[in-house]
């Protein structure tokens, strides 16, 4: 078993070497003849043996694509055997599909079909076996824990509650003092200066700032990181979480802070596992590309309607065509969202900030005649495609609420963990929306949003988008038929 940087090097190098070996084996005429003669589906393929520069170019191309696409599996996460196999098989399939696509559009880069088939048949067996053989498993000895955070009281509480040996604590630049009231001067991140120990009887060494976190994890051979942040809904918290997942370190938090973090709640334990895994960079790229493509295509298709909607709004009631609002974004930040105006001008001047009664199936007197049609057909949401295009929103994610409404909902009984929705970028649609749950049902909405955060993947996003489009089409048809009557 290997861990840390060695795992990443060994796993990546092993995949590269296995790919080179698979290509060389597949490039022999004897192997190709055996496959063509025994597999009925490919019996019409002709053996094609590459030599010289052609072989070298394809060898580099295939190895580069396979090694790059399997990069997320080089993290030393303690995975189960079946999970490792399924993830590896999926990535190998994607790599084969990518090379076939490249060859289809660029004949000069095409790998002969017989070679490609044999190569990925071999890799589908060899790579999962390799990753299973070296997968990171918990060590037999005691865990080595590291505390990361900026709250002295929380660090002290964790030190007293954790059973594993604590190698030290890492903290961002923040005032630290013995009692938490008389704050001393801030210390620069990573300066390595000696600070006063956090409050408590157990003394643990200060190891440095967050900029040294990666080297500390590797050099101290850390197995577990326990978070001691005062605020758990900020980007700093999730940056550290991503680093822990990158190096195969189990991330945990004290039960007292678990109300604002997704955790695997184990009864009777004070230190709980954080049950949120950051996306791989490849998944983030795919999601962002999908967001841009969806928003761009949506704006292009809807462009003929924009002028019609604008004229209808102006003729129906006085006021601007668009209206803007501040909404809560990822990590509790805010951004400006734009929509077609569907209510009378200054609709909240008398009522204050409140949810529309139409969201609960009622009738809101503030909504105009044209606005009622726009809301029913979801056309008022078209300007939000711009927010997706510039990166303030995503196509799929928890619907962003007004900051004032967030505060009101948090004060309601049963929804004290509302901030868990801030772990991902807000979306145009989400699991709650396709299940017809609105802000009038905060507990149920939170349940759906948290479920999405746990299950999020590109496949889940596509499924949600398809269901939402189907619902929108249904609402449009229903509205047209009612108007026709």
Automatic annotation (TrEMBL):
The chain crosses the membrane at residues 7-26, 55-76, 88-105, 111-134, 292-313. The keyword Membrane applies. Residues 287-473 form the Bacterial sugar transferase domain. Pfam families: Bac_transf. Coiled coil: none annotated. Keywords: Membrane, Transferase, Transmembrane, Transmembrane helix. It comes from the Archaea. One of its GO terms (molecular function) is phosphotransferase activity, for other substituted phosphate groups. PANTHER family: COLANIC BIOSYNTHESIS UDP-GLUCOSE LIPID CARRIER TRANSFERASE (PTHR30576), UNDECAPRENYL-PHOSPHATE N-ACETYLGALACTOSAMINYL 1-PHOSPHATE TRANSFERASE-RELATED (PTHR30576:SF0). This is Sugar transferase involved in lipopolysaccharidesynthesis. It comes from Halapricum desulfuricans. The gene is wcaJ.
């Amino acid at each position: 078993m290997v861990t840390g940087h060695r795992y990443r090097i060994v796993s990546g190098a092993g995949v590269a070497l296995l790919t080179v070996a698979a290509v060389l084996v597949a490039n022999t005429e004897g192997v190709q003849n055996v496959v063509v003669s025994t597999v009925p589906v490919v019996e019409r393929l002709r053996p094609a043996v590459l030599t010289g520069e052609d072989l070298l170019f394809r060898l580099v191309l295939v190895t580069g694509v396979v090694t790059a696409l399997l990069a997320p599996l080089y993290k030393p996460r303690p995975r189960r055997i079946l999970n490792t196999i399924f993830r590896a098989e999926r990535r190998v399939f994607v790599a084969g599909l990518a090379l076939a696509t490249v060859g289809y559009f660029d004949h000069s880069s095409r790998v002969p079909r017989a070679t490609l088939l044999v190569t990925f048949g071999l890799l589908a067996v060899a790579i999962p076996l390799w990753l299973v053989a070296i997968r990171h498993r918990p060590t037999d000895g005691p865990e080595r824990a590291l505390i990361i955070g900026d709250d002295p009281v929380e660090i002290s509480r964790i030190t007293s509650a954790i059973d594993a040996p604590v190698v030290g604590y890492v903290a961002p630049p923040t005032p630290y003092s013995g009692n938490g009231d008389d704050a001393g001067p801030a210390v620069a991140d990573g300066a390595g200066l000696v600070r006063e120990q956090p409050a408590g009887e157990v003394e643990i060494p200060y190891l440095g700032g967050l900029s040294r976190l990666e080297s500390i994890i590797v050099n101290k051979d850390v197995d577990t990181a326990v978070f001691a942040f005062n605020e758990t809904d900020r980007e700093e918290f999730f940056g550290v979480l991503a680093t822990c997942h990158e190096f195969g370190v189990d991330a945990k938090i004290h039960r007292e802070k678990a109300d604002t973090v997704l955790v695997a709640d184990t009864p009777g334990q004070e230190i709980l596992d954080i049950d949120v895994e950051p996306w791989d960079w490849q998944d983030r790229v795919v999601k962002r590309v999908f967001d841009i493509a969806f928003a761009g295509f949506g704006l292009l298709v809807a462009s003929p309607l924009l002028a019609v909607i604008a004229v209808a709004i102006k003729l129906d009631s006085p006021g601007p065509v668009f209206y803007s609002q501040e909404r809560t974004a990822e990590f509790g930040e805010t951004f400006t969202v734009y929509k077609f105006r569907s209510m009378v001008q200054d609709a909240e001047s008398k009522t204050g900030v409140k949810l529309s009664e139409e969201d609960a199936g009622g009738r809101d007197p503030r909504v105009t005649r044209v606005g009622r049609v726009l809301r029913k057909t979801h056309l008022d949401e078209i300007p939000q495609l711009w927010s997706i295009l510039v990166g303030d929103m995503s196509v799929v994610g928890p619907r962003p609420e007004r900051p004032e409404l967030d505060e009101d909902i948090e004060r309601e009984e049963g929804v004290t963990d509302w901030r868990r929705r801030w772990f991902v970028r807000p979306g145009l649609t989400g699991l709650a929306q396709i299940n017809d749950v609105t802000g009038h049902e905060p507990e149920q909405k939170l349940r759906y949003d948290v479920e999405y955060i746990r299950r999020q993947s590109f496949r889940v996003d596509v499924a949600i988008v398809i269901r939402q489009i189907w619902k929108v089409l249904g609402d449009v048809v229903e509205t047209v038929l009612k108007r026709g009557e």
